[in-house]
Amino acid sequence: MELREISPYDLEYSNAFRAVGKEWMLICAESAGVTNAMTASWGFLGQLWNRPAAICFIRPQRFTYHMADESERFSLCFFGEGMREELRYFGTASGRDGNKAEATGLHYGHIDNTPVVEEASLILLCRKIYVDDIKEENFKEKSIIPACYPGRDYHRVFVCEVEKCFIKQ
């Protein structure tokens, strides 16, 4: 891995809306010696509580859910446009059934004891600082529920401090 650490404030990623919502990211977590990553297209990057922050969402039935919930830290890995099929696989296959990195030719690794996907062009090392569940009674726009939660499987929200930021050289 040839990465360079930069301050999150020096990150010049062209468009966070596109990076998360269109190009997707992998949430990479580890628990009990097992590493897994899942594709996510809902999230935020910015400033919260006087620190650089990332917010991501994981449904309770996802294999990564318990890993992220049990871990103090995990990573958000971004790849740009070039890895669409690999990221699609990470979003449709389950880590319960095998190692998704091996299946796609990617590799899990660690930076500062935090699991990462080595081929990422941008890696954010995240430390959880707030966790909560989306609650049906709090929706003001009720049409979101049947559109995004037909099974009422509401996401857990992970608010994280971005402790370190690495870009591929």
Can you walk me through this structure?
- The protein is of the alpha+beta class.
- 20% of the residues lie in helices and 42% in strands.
- It is built from five helices and ten strands.
- Strands 1, 2, 3, 4, 5, 6, 9 and 10 form an eight-stranded antiparallel beta sheet that branches.
- A hairpin with a 2-residue loop joins strand 7 (108-111) and strand 8 (114-117).
- The longest helix is centred in the middle third of the chain and has 9 residues, at 84-92.
- The N and C termini lie close together (9 Å).
- The model has no long low-confidence stretch (mean pLDDT 94).
Helix and strand topology:
Layout: E1 3-6, H1 16-21, E2 25-31, E3 34-40, E4 43-48, E5 51-58, H2 63-70, E6 73-78, H3 84-92, H4 100-104, E7 108-111, E8 114-117, E9 122-133, H5 144-148, E10 156-168
Antiparallel strand pairs: 1-10, 2-3, 2-6, 4-5, 5-10, 6-9, 7-8, 9-10
Q: In sequence order, what are the helices and strands, one letter per element? A: EHEEEEHEHHEEEHE
What does the radius of gyration come to? 15 Å
What is the β-strand count? 10
Mean pLDDT: 94
Shape: globular
Question: Which stretches are low in confidence, meaning pLDDT under 50 for 5 or more residues running?
Answer: none
Distance between the termini: 9 Å
Sheet bearing the most strands, described?
8 strands, antiparallel
Decide which structural class fits the backbone: alpha+beta
> So how many helices?
5
Q: How much of the sequence is in beta strands? A: 35-45%
Report the helical percentage. 10-25%
